[in-house]
Amino acid sequence: MSNENLNHPILTKSFALIDAEVGEHGLSAAEYAIARRIIHSTADFDYLNLLQCSPNAIASGIKALQAGAPIVTDVTMVQQGIATLVGKTFQNPIIAAISKAPVADPGKTRTETGLLKCWAEYPEAIYVIGNAPTALLALCDRMNNSAQIPALVIGVPVGFVSVVESKQALTKVNVPQILVKGRKGGSPVAAAIINALLILAQEYL
Known about the structure:
Layout: H1 3-6, H2 9-22, H3 29-42, H4 47-50, E1 51-53, H5 57-66, E2 71-73, H6 76-88, E3 94-96, H7 110-121, E4 126-129, H8 133-144, E5 152-155, H9 163-171, E6 177-180, H10 187-203
Parallel strand pairs: 2-3, 2-4, 4-5, 5-6
Antiparallel strand pairs: 1-6
Helix pairs in contact: 2-3, 3-10, 5-10, 6-10, 7-8, 8-9
């Protein structure tokens, strides 16, 4: 399926307007494709400088998407934000961690509880954390104590409590990762990153 069929005409026009406003930048073509889609979702050009990709993170994510790897999201909003494009491209299974935990384990949030259950089933999945820093911290803890690592971790929780700390914890783990520095992020940002990777994965077939 061509990108013309994946990108709505209004989206294509929006991208052209973003390109004109951004002008020159220091990102690679693939990094800019991700940043541009985030900017489109948020109307916030700060993301051009907040996006951080580890070496080979994009390549690892693309390879995993093409191979049909499961995508584990922290919340259903991220799941819903990527379902349409996943369905049009590689049909990867999408699992929302919070749906795995109707009740939280003692001392944990529901999202953290569900994330740990997902880790037990899908340690090599793509993990997308757009809302819950507790889930990202739990994931970092598991990765630090396991020989297995995910194909990619997208760490973009938003807010004030434990958000920056969870992203800092991710940077200390040797795993392919894409994150947004600081307090910004959120489910729309997480979905935008995966959707951009899906388009790139389609391009590189």
